Amino acid sequence: MSSPLFPVFADLRGRAVLVVGGGTVALRKVTALIDAGALVRVGAPTLNVELTALAAQGRIEHLNGTFAPRWLDGAWLAIAATDDDEVNRAVAQAGEAQRIWVNVVDDAQASSVQIPARVDRGPVQIAISSAGAAPMLARHLREQLETQLDESLGELASLLGRERHRIRARHPQLGERRRFFDRLLSGAVPRLLRQRQRLAAEREFSALLNAPAATARGSVALVGAGPGDPGLLTLRALRVLNEADVILHDRLVSDDVLQLVRRDAQRIEVGKQAGNHHATQDRIHELMLEHARAGKRVVRLKGGDPFVFGRGGEELEVLRAHGIDYEVVPGITAALACAAYAGVPLTHRDHAQSVRLVTAHARDSMDSIDWRALAQERQTLAVYMGVAGLDRLSERLIEHGRAASTPFALVENGSRASQRVITGTLADLAQRAQAHDVQSPALLIVGEVAALAGTLHWFGDAPLGAPATATVAEAA
């Protein structure tokens, strides 16, 4: 087995670099080198349109002709990026003779240096190399890191660079300085920079720098977990879950989502049980305050979206009243996710020009609904509810003018592997739900668009009630 490569970040500012080749691959290398401040020479008989423009602007020097070893004179680095293996190897051999590092694109054996896949966040850069053995793997890892590292990291690094001397003066001992950085990086400064509140971030930084070493400030993030498929989490939600010390999660947050939580985070289930919602909500408030006051980063993890039938507004009011820092990370609410995974467009030019989101979890909420407005045609109803009230809901809608033949789609465990979709008409809604033993969580979609589930479904099994042979292709 060959020895591993030694990683190095090179300062190419004002230093000559030769790129041999005039095509698309060469352009990609040239662009990165210009960004790094290198003096770029491009050697090739012809250049593509973009490289020709760069030469005309004086941003690169064009060496016209076929490769000659003298092109390497004064160069610190060379890149062979032609489609001719003989030319590329000639560049590598000439570079070896002159002790100049040479990268031959897509030829690890001929290269004396590798150009890694790179994640760029201003002063912060992450380089990934497979030593040329698996460049597509390196690219895949780079794409994953791109989604996990917030763009504000660059601003954070710049702030720390500007304040480096103050930090060292205030915390001259290494151990003390490390503890300061732990507090800084887990505190409000990164969050404020991500929220584009630069002045507030600088004030928070100064306050933290001058604070006693033991000072710790907690915070709470209200995070929407979506309907269950972990792939529907936002990038920000994933980052927050990996930074949290304490997770207060609803009962219906899927196990797949909880698997993404930081391994050493404390998990506390705070799911509400029937008949005890108020007491449980008060306990949630107490837990948020308790852990945030202890200096911990708390995530209140809610199914769907925190602000859609999730009492997120009440929780923010409590946090604000007690001076606790907070942020909100939206999630994909059940109406959007369940409809999409069932193949039901919530609006459609021919069928529905509006959508109403309705909750009907209890008899009291049933009595307060404006049934006449909900019964109007050419609109879609997305009903968040327990399945026990389906009979009353269908009766009320029909009583107030909605046709008994109006289609429905009842989506159980939307977006999860166990998803089921039951379709029918409003007249037989309760009967069909009972026949198929539909359980919570389930979302009801009422309206003409619900009939499209039979032809537009794409996820999981075909809807129960639709023809088994229906396909997306037939719908088209």
User: Helical element count?
Assistant: 20
CATH fold field value of the largest domain? Methyltransferase, Cobalt-precorrin-4 Transmethylase, Domain 2
In terms of DSSP E residues, the strand content is 15-25%
Q: Regarding CATH, which class of the largest domain?
A: Alpha Beta
Shape: globular
**Strands across the major sheet, in which order?**
3-2-1-4-5
Low-confidence stretches: 466-476
Total beta strands: 17
What CATH architecture of the largest domain would you give? 2-Layer Sandwich
Provide mean pLDDT, rounded.
Answer: 89
Number of structural domains: 4
Radius of gyration: 30 Å
The N- and C-terminal alpha carbons lie at a distance of: 55 Å
Largest sheet: 5 strands, parallel
- Helical fraction equals 25-40%
CATH superfamily of the largest domain: Tetrapyrrole methylase, C-terminal domain
How would you classify the helix and strand content by structural class?
A: alpha/beta
Binding site for NAD(+): 24-25, 45-46
Catalytic activity: siroheme + 2 H(+) = sirohydrochlorin + Fe(2+); uroporphyrinogen III + 2 S-adenosyl-L-methionine = precorrin-2 + 2 S-adenosyl-L-homocysteine + H(+); precorrin-2 + NAD(+) = sirohydrochlorin + NADH + 2 H(+)
Region (Precorrin-2 dehydrogenase / sirohydrochlorin ferrochelatase): 1-205
Protein name: Siroheme synthase
Write the layout of secondary structure elements.
Layout: E1 16-20, H1 24-35, E2 39-44, H2 49-56, E3 61-64, E4 77-80, H3 85-97, E5 101-104, E6 117-121, E7 124-128, H4 135-148, H5 153-162, H6 164-170, H7 174-185, H8 188-194, H9 198-210, E8 219-224, H10 235-241, E9 246-249, H11 255-258, E10 266-269, H12 277-293, E11 297-302, H13 312-321, E12 325-329, H14 334-341, E13 355-359, H15 363-367, H16 371-374, E14 380-384, H17 390-399, E15 407-412, E16 420-425, H18 429-435, E17 442-446, H19 453-456, H20 472-475
